[in-house]
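Hi support team,

I submitted a single chain yesterday and got back a structure, but I'm not sure I'm reading the token output correctly. Could someone confirm the output below corresponds to the sequence I sent? I've pasted both exactly as they appear in my results page.

Thanks,
R.
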Amino acid sequence: MSQTSSVAARIGNMLPTTVTPVLRRMSVASLIGQGVLIVSGGAVRLTASGLGCPTWPKCTADSLVNTPEMGIHGIIEFGNRTLTFVLAAIAAVMLVMLWNMRKERRDLFWLAFGLLASIPAQAVIGGITVLTHLNPWVVSLHFLVSAALVVLAMLLVNRTYGRTGRTSVPYVAAPGAALRRLAGLAAVCGYLAVVLGTVVTGSGPHAGDANAPRNDLSPYLAARVHVLPVYVLVVAVVILVVLAWKRGNGDIIRNAAILLAVSVVAQGAIGYWQYFTGLPSLLVGIHMLGSSVLLATATNMADVTLRRAK
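Hi R., thanks for writing in. Yes, this is the structure output for that exact sequence:
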């Protein structure tokens, strides 16, 4: 055996063969980090720091990082870029830790791989956003990749904690067909609401820079279309809570339904509050945080309900 092979074998022997508490905590860190990335991206736009680093991949033509002359806008924009690399590092470490489980726990391995593979794509789209001077459609795509990463991270958390996946705890009572369909409908409506929310954002006042283009759509009409899936989501969640309530305190599906209901009510309240108060930056930022929570709770609801009964 060559020296390289011997070193690789020793490293392999040091890696875990089962899901460890460290791996669970890293999956949670990844989920929280994806939400923070969405919020920091919102801060870039809401503080007009979208071109704080006016070029890409460097921050300026001569510097990889922001310079003191760039002020607070450079700090905010470069901070958002840096967070992307932190999340990539977390995903890479998880992938290494899962190497010995790559066959037995393909679900974990490929979710971690998806998180790692998507982050460089996110960085490239961020670069295109800067190079197109914050084109609203590219900005929307940039956000939606982050939204997809929240979904992947939530699925990874559920599987590392054994709520879903190959080692999940069996159902106390398997959900009926109606509950399964409603959970799937709620997730789809939640995702669609987030997608349409990016169109509303592209028509609104917070462009990320005073000279950034808008999508030229009517903000009023975009907002009305955005709330259509929200109405369906609210109805689906109400019925979900009613059906899940009788499952008993502590049931995983009941708890998921309650979490989703709380996130929908909070996000809806914040959405209407910001709309009727002229879209103040703080409320818009909180609404973006709420979107990441909604994505996570809707994914969790569908994941724990649609998993195969054992």
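A quick pointer for reading it: The chain has two domains: 7-167, 169-310. Let us know if anything else looks off.

Best,
Support desk
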